[in-house]
Specification:
Blueprint: E1 2-3, E2 19-21, E3 24-25, E4 28-29, E5 33-35, H1 38-54, E6 59-63, H2 73-78, H3 83-93, H4 103-112, H5 149-153, H6 170-186, E7 191-193, E8 203-207, H7 214-219, H8 225-239, H9 242-249, H10 265-272, H11 295-305, E9 312-316, E10 329-330, E11 340-341, E12 345-348, E13 352-366, E14 381-384, E15 396-399, E16 404-406, E17 409-416, E18 422-423, E19 434-436, H12 444-452, E20 457-461, E21 465-471, E22 475-476, E23 487-488, H13 491-501, E24 505-512, H14 516-529, E25 532-536, H15 546-552, E26 558-560, E27 564-565, E28 570-575, E29 578-583, H16 587-605, E30 616-619, E31 624-626, E32 631-639, E33 642-645, H17 654-659, E34 662-666, E35 671-673, E36 678-683
Parallel strand pairs: 6-8, 7-8, 13-14, 21-24, 21-25, 22-23, 25-29, 27-32
Antiparallel strand pairs: 1-2, 2-5, 3-4, 9-20, 10-19, 11-18, 12-14, 12-15, 13-17, 16-17, 26-28, 28-29, 30-36, 31-35, 32-33, 32-34, 34-36
Bound molecules: adenosine monophosphate and magnesium ion (MG).
The site of magnesium ion has 6 residues, from loops.
């Protein structure tokens, strides 16, 4: 981001109203750079762009500088509205050194080519310049608008015709366009200028405006406002998701150009919202010992040691289903906004007494979207349709099925209470009311409610990036040929589907052989690309259990021996800042551990609230006795209102997982279940929420 200036060299000591620039990457800004004059600034921009280009990076260069003049100017001057050709026109005529430039003289020469007086004004020099008035009101008949549509869209912006005086921008525009023209030449082929050209090149130039986030600039610690501005805007734009940036850039190309982010301060603020810190290295450290950790203790540990790790984004309500709300949503207006009718019928001032009521009808009607604007006198009625606003004088509606209408009179039998069949303004939602709190995973019904409350966009958490990988020399990908000694990798596609359905951004990290170096590389890649890694296999303490061996070296490792069946140890650790869940290799154990432990943990990391699975108490269709000291999860489904369990409890039997629609949970104490006893059933479906 570059804050340009039209003045002369400002000296060695950093000062305000000079040129300031700042480079940021993914929301992290380098120190703002003070550039005392335009020549140094242009050099710095060229060097920086060359370096970033060599590094293969994409760069958005934002200038707080009008890229164009109001419609008609270019045509009069160069014969067409070709803005980029106009830049070249200026480049050929502007002379510029650190101590002097010809901007006032050039403005006078340009004015001479227009009828009347103007459009440029404010001669900042002592000597008079032909055709350049000192006062704005001396101008007349030059035939050009004062501002571009883009300038009108940013409140407080100045007209590019004013060359000098407090806040003026006209001087820096004349002194900036030649520099922009030279950048285009210099980086020809890899640079485009938005919105005059499609922004599909490595380097994109765009006009911005640094005065929208005033409160954030004021709160920034840098003593010089211009430095705070370039730093804040660089952080904001560089932190935007490609989608969010595409929304800002999606405007029709006009020769007048546009200000990137005009009217979109909320999107900029959302991009500046801090990403939460990563999880601590010791988040999985549980007291170790000979004892087997009860399920509830393991869950309590996860609940208290995990937190949200994702940043935020603003998205349209229509795209929000399945996303996690990052900020409370507040109704923008009451629902319904005005009292209206709940039925088709006739409205009047209630109540209606017992017996026959006959009310003359006023002429006209009130329909949804076409309310009756007049007043209904007491003792009269009006035709009204469902959803139509109640006209003044109406508070009660009689159902059309209950009336007869004859010769302009509506008749019906009372009594009817005052307010019958009418909806009050705000009876559903009040303006300003919090309708959903942060952490909520937005449902389709929520989308409807938010829309009804006049909310067009919501701030949501970025999708949690969940990497899935498998380990084991014996594994082959489904569809490949396999020998008898090999099995197909069932866990990776199964876990990927599970977390995809839960609304996460699943990244397939592949399959590792039982080889420590390869697995290490995979964890490196995964940690760089994901917020959390879900691995299966190799999680115990055997010779080929490389996952636990590698995690053990990070110093963050914990092997959780949980008192449950199915399940062997869970290997938990933090690899380069990214938590890793090492699930057992047996598909049934992998699935159960994913549902019971990874599922609530990931919810919290994604910004949702901690949740317990819903337990439906249903009669058992089976009998079983279990011993004390561990929790058991059985594959189960509901048949004729009773919970059936899968014939075999073998942990390798994937078919039973598919057969089941959920799990029966048998608590830790020893117990004997008889047919008909109530047992807790956990539906797989409830793990999607
Ligand atoms: P491990 O935890 O690596 O000792 O594996 C335990 C059992 O689960 C072994 O029988 C493995 O072959 C099996 N297994 C491990 N990973 C997978 C997988 N991704 N898909 C299917 N079975 C697996
Ligand atoms: Mg293995």
């Amino acid at each position: 981001m570059v804050d340009w200036s039209g003045g002369n060299d400002r000296g060695a000591k950093p000062v305000k109203d000079a040129i300031w620039a700042c480079l940021a990457t993914k929301g992290i800004a380098e120190a703002p750079v003070y550039l005392r004059n335009r020549q140094l600034a242009e050099d710095w921009i060229i060097q920086t762009l060359s370096r970033l280009q060599a590094e293969g990076r994409r760069v958005l260069v934002g200038f707080d500088l009008c890229f164009a003049y109001p419609t008609g100017f270019a045509t009069q001057l160069i014969g067409s509205e070709d803005t980029l050709a106009l830049w070249d026109w200026f480049a050929a005529r502007v002379t510029d050194t650190p101590d002097s430039n010809n901007r006032f003289d050039l403005a006078g020469e340009i004015n001479a080519q227009f009828p009347g007086v103007g459009p440029f004004w404010f001669n900042g020099l002592k000597r008079d310049i032909d055709h350049l008035p000192r006062k704005g009101n001396a101008r007349r008949d030059h035939g050009l608008p004062e501002k571009r549509a883009a300038d009108i869209a940013v409140p407080g912006s100045f007209s590019p015709w004013q060359l000098a005086g407090a806040g003026a921008v006209g001087g820096q525009v004349i002194m900036g366009l030649p520099m922009l023209a030279r950048l285009r030449q210099r980086f020809a082929g890899t640079l485009r200028v938005w919105p005059f050209e499609a922004p599909d090149a490595q380097i994109v130039l765009a006009e911005t405006y640094f005065s929208t986030l005033r409160e954030l600039v004021a709160a920034d610690p840098h003593p010089i406002r211009d430095a705070s501005q370039v730093s804040l805007y660089a952080r904001a734009f560089s932190n935007m998701s490609p989608d969010a940036l595409a929304v800002l850039m999606d405007i029709p190309a006009t020769p007048e150009g546009w200000v990137l982010g005009a009217g979109k301060a909320d999107a900029l603020r959302a991009a500046l919202a801090p990403t939460p810190p990563p999880l601590k290295n010791d988040c999985f450290a549980m007291p170790q010992g000979a004892h087997w950790t009860p399920v509830d203790e393991a869950l309590a540990h996860l609940q208290s040691h995990l937190h949200c790790v994702t940043g935020t984004d603003d998205i349209a309500v229509g795209d929000a289903a399945g996303r996690v709300l990052a900020r409370d949503a507040t109704a923008q207006r009451a629902h319904p906004p005005a009292p209206n009718s709940a039925v088709d019928g006739y409205g009047f001032a209630g109540p209606a007494p017992e017996g026959l009521n006959s009310l003359p009808l006023v002429i006209g009607r009130s329909a949804a979207g076409a309310p009756f604007e007049g007043t209904v006198p007491k003792g009269q009625a009006i035709r009204i349709l469902t959803g139509a606003n109640l006209p003044t004088g109406v508070d009660t509606v009689v159902l059309q099925e209950d009336v007869t209408v004859d010769a302009g009179v509506v008749s019906f039998y009372g009594p009817l209470k005052k307010g019958a069949n009418a909806r009050d303004a705000g009876e559903d939602m009040q303006a300003g009311q919090t309708v959903l709190t942060k952490g909520r995973k937005i449902t389709p019904a929520d989308v409807g409610m938010l829309a009804a409350a006049g909310i067009g966009a919501v701030t949501v958490r970025n999708r949690l990036r969940v990497g899935v990988l498998s380990t084991g020399d014996e594994l082959r990908d489904p569809g490949d040929t396999a020998t008898d000694g090999q099995i197909y990798d069932a866990n990776r596609p199964m876990l990927a589907a599970l977390f995809d359905q839960a609304g996460y951004d699943v990244i397939d990290l592949g399959r590792a052989p039982d080889n420590r170096a390869v697995l290490r590389d995979m964890l490196d890649t995964g940690a760089a690309r994901c917020d959390v890694i879900i691995a299966s296999g190799g999680a115990s303490a055997g010779d080929e259990d490389h996952m636990s061996a590698l995690l053990a070296n990070t110093g963050s490792f914990a092997l959780w021996r949980i008192a449950m069946k199915p399940g062997r140890p869970l290997a938990l650790g933090v690899w380069d800042g990214t938590p890793v869940f090492g699930l057992p290799g047996n598909p049934v154990a992998a699935m159960v551990c994913a549902l019971i432990f990874a599922h609530p943990a990931l919810r919290v990391m994604a910004g949702s609230t901690w949740s317990e699975p819903v337990r439906y108490m249903l009669p058992a269709g089976f009998s079983k006795s279990k011993k004390e000291g561990r929790r058991e999860y059985l594959r189960a489904r509901i048949t004729d209102g009773k919970v059936e369990t899968f014939a075999s409890e073998g942990s390798g039997r994937v078919s039973g997982l598919s057969w089941a629609t959920g799990l029966v949970e048998l608590s830790d104490p020893a117990q004997t279940i008889q047919k008909g006893d109530l047992v807790p059933f956990l539906s797989f479906k409830s793990f999607d929420a």
